[in-house]
Automatic annotation (TrEMBL), chain A:
GO terms under biological process: cobalt ion transport
InterPro entries for this protein: ABC/ECF_trnsptr_transmembrane, ECF_CbiQ, ECF_transporter_component
Record Pfam families: CbiQ
Membrane topology term: Multi-pass membrane protein
TM helices/strands, residue ranges: 43-60, 72-89, 109-130, 231-251
UniProt name for this protein: Energy-coupling factor transporter transmembrane protein EcfT
Organism: Streptomyces jeddahensis
From TrEMBL, chain B:
Main location: membrane
Name under which the protein is recorded: ABC transporter ATP-binding protein
Keywords: ATP-binding, Cell membrane, Hydrolase, Membrane, Nucleotide-binding, Translocase, Transport
Protein topology in the membrane: Peripheral membrane protein
Family: Belongs to the ABC transporter superfamily.
Subcellular location(s) of the protein: Cell membrane
Domain ABC transporter: 8-238
Keyword presence, S-adenosyl-L-methionine: no
Annotated PROSITE patterns: ABC_TRANSPORTER_1, ABC_TRANSPORTER_2
Recorded GO CC terms: ATP-binding cassette (ABC) transporter complex
Amino acid sequence: MGAGHAHRLYRHGHSPVHRLPPHTKLAAVFAFVVVVVSTPREAMWAFGLYAVLLGVVAYVARVPSGFLLKRLLIEVPFVAFAVLLPFVAQGERVDVLGLSLSVNGLWGAWNVLAKGTLGVAASVLLAATTELRELLLGLQRLKLPPLLVQIASFMIRYGDVITDEMRRMKIARESRGFEASGIRHWGVLAKSAGALFIRSYERGERVHLAMLSRGYAGTMPVIDEVTATRAQWSSALALPCTALVVCLLGWTL
Amino acid sequence: MDPVTPSLDVAGLAFAYPDGHQALFGVDLRIERGERVALLGPNGAGKTTLVLHLNGILTGGAGTVKVAGLPVGKQHMAEIRRRVGIVFQDPDDQLFMPTVREDVAFGPAAAGMKGPELEARVRKALEQVGMAEFAERPPHHLSFGQRRRVAVATVLAMEPEILVLDEPSSNLDPASRRELADILRSLDVTVLMVTHDLPYALELCPRSVILSEGAITADGATAELLSDDELMRAHRLELPFGFDPRSVSAPTR
């Protein structure tokens, strides 16, 4: 599908992971994340094993580590507060490099950081091996409400169109000597946002008209049916199943 | 089908919008099978209103619309929308699916077609407009002319009785304009073309009708209408600078 034009999270390839049907991958990633989150935080070795598992998946999918690590940066703003936990949490304290840190806080920070990173890494791998379009087909197959799938699919289709419209409005503003430099200009920006909303709304009406003209009656026709064989299901679910074994060991050991 | 049944038969069509603005005052228009007719008229003449009546998006006024003998009405709306293929002015409104192939498949799939039959229909429609190799592309990565051609394909895939084009030449560069003209000429389908582009009407349509203030005020050979200076002036229709309809040989089909 549209090689070279795909979303930048996607990495074109023909690996066994790329070839798996989208809904099996979605189910596998979801199950993996659930397993990781339910692992006790004290079992540090378990998280190491999870990371190794994801490393194996990345290797099979031929996703280079640099690509993966760079996209992991997205989690930085979300885990930033985890760094604060050791300083603000209550309870028993230890001295590390002259800083007095809370033991509870340290465990909390580790918990958020490890589980968050593993979850984001799994999602980045999913996005790198599955096209947006396929993800939608997968969600549809997993019986997500069709209305939600339709909304997501229109977002993908019209995201660029609306960004383009926004860019043109910005150029038009600037061509008439406007530059947003302070709070006094927020009014103008707010009006532009309002105009953009109305334009998009009207486009929505025209699109709806075009859909009706081609026989739309409330439901999207199924054009591509995605199916998975037993073998494809078992190779996709190998990841969460192995993780589950690790998790159970983590609870018992 | 009986060869004397016209593709389109509009009789006494009148319509007022809910806000009281009356757009159509008794339109009569008959288009035979295989004809190519241009619908000319100044802005605000009711052209779009008329078009939206042809497939039953707007209803409720006086008069009747028949498509290949079938009256437009609630009971067979699906069949009417299959028979009347409207190509809207902005291809971004018309192409709402994530890939070209899915967009072209939308109409036939909504009518219940699937599998290899659907694939064959999509391929044929894309070949008719010369866009077969772009099937897997997302529409927003195509040039404007290509998008317009795909928009035509989305409608051709429904094998319509009549193709209705709203301003088909707008925003096209001269090469795309000529390519679209070649495609339209090669199709064996009745065409109603709404346009301001008078040379384009002359090039493609042997017959033209002028819609002015909600009624058909002239109906005849395109070359004759365009050569009637008084008629043209009376309806705010102007030829481009230096263009003389008498100096070109119009197709008579």
